[in-house]
Amino acid sequence: MRPSGRSLNQLRTVSIETGVTKHAEGSCLIRMGDTHVLCTATIEEKAPPFLKNTGLGWVTAEYGMLPRATNTRTRREAAAGKQSGRTQEIQRLIGRALRAGVDRSALGERQIVVDCDVIQADGGTRCASITGGWVALRLAMNKLLKAGAISSDPMLDHVAAVSCGIYAGQPVLDLDYLEDSAAGTDGNFILTGAGKLIEVQMSAEGATFSRGEMNELLDLAGEGIAALVVAQKAALA
User: Fold this and answer.
1) Is 124 annotated as a binding residue?
2) Domains within the chain, CATH numbers bracketed
C-alpha cells in the first residue's frame, strides 16, 4: 500500500489553472497533489547573441523554490549570492525539455523565458514545472499567433513529465515526497504527447534495478504522460 492510498499506476490529483498572473504572456498554476508550481512565460523580442542572424528562436527556463515551499525554511538563493547546483540542473532540464517541442525556425529570432516557481513542494517539482511550463509556453505562442507576429505554429507537440520509481519493491507512478525519499530506484520521464522520449533520468537510490524494471517504469510513465496531456488540453480548452 502506498502512503497516499493510491494504486500503483495512479497519478496524484492534477489541476492546471491558466491566466493566473496579469502581466505574463502565458501563465498557469499547476497542482500535482501537494506540489504546486506557478509557471509564467515571457516573450522577449530578441534572441540570445549566439543566435543572431540565424533565424532561430530560443526557449529557456528559470526555476526557483520559495523559502517555505518545504517543511523547513530554505534560504533564498539570491541572499546566498548564487544558485545551487540543483537549481541550475533543474532549470536546464526544463529548458531542454520545452525546446524539444518547439520548431525554433517558426518562432523566429526571439526568446521565450519560462519561469517556474515552486510555491509548495511534495516531490516531483521538476516534472510539474515541465508539464505546467508547457501550458504557459503554449499560451504565449497563442498570443504571438493572434498578433500575427509569427505565421505558423512553432509548437510541435505536447511535452509533459512524470516521476516513476521502485517503492517498497513495487513500480509506482508519480512519487510524492514520502515515496521519493524512500524509493530504491527513482526516475524522471519526459515525453511528447505522441509518446516520443525527450529525456529519461534514472538512478539506483538504494538498490540496483533490472532492465525489466526499467521497462515497467517506462510503461507506467507512458500512462502518466497520456493523462497529463489530457489535463493540459482541458486547461487550454
Assistant:
1) yes
2) 14-236 (3.30.230.70)
